Amino acid sequence: MNSTVTIGNRLIPLEHIVAVEPFDPETQLPIPSERSFHARVLLLNRDNFLMEETVEAFSKKHGFLFLAEDQISVNAVDVHFSVETFVPKAGFQPTKDYRSRLIWTDLDGERQSKLLLTPPDTVLAVAVRGEPDPSADNAAPMKSKPARTKRRKPSAPMPA
């Protein structure tokens, strides 16, 4: 499996991709392009790119896991996620019935998140544990998730 993906003329390491979400040109500002974009790629450095491949096709090709209710594909192997239950705060009333928040750390060490319609227990199973969404068609097997190891602190030099 190739560890780099080409989007347009950019080469992007798969481990820098957080997620891939659908792109609906009808709900966005017009883009002066003859290309037909179907998905948006979210990167760890907070950049994003449009691509012509669908979320489902990209997900199957690169071993990302698909959250069916949100139609989003997550990189459960290379990105360490956490999940929170979403409860709207006073003054913020979203237009959708979000139920969870998917959280990751960007390359600057800052916390980033995305609100999802998928229930938190399903997001946790998929994004953190690497299990397929039971309501999604994850026909392609996910790349094996590496075991997480604790980083050791350097030991003090031995006295002579």
What does this molecule look like?
Strands 5-4-3-7-6 form a five-stranded antiparallel sheet, sandwiched between helices. The protein has a three-stranded antiparallel sheet with strand order 8-9-10, covered by helices on one side. The protein has a two-stranded antiparallel sheet with strand order 1-2. Helix content is 11%, strand content 28%. Mean pLDDT is 83; it is low at 138-155. It contains two helices and ten strands, in the order E-E-E-E-E-H-E-E-E-E-E-H. The protein is mainly β and 160 residues long. It has helices spanning 55-62, 120-128; strands at residues 4-7, 10-13, 17-22, 39-43, 48-51, 65-67, 72-74, 82-85, 100-105, 111-116. A hairpin with a 4-residue loop joins strand 6 (65-67) and strand 7 (72-74).
Q: Report low-confidence residues grouped into runs of 5 or more.
A: 138-155
The helix/strand series, from N terminus to C terminus, equals: EEEEEHEEEEEH
Beta content: 25-35%
Read across the widest sheet, the strand sequence of neighbours is 5-4-3-7-6
Q: Share of helix among residues?
A: 10-25%
* Intertermini distance: 49 Å
C-alpha Rg (nearest Å) = 18 Å
Structural class by SSE content = mainly beta
Main β-sheet description: 5 strands, antiparallel
Shape: globular
| Beta strand count | 10
Determine the mean pLDDT. 83
Number of helices: 2
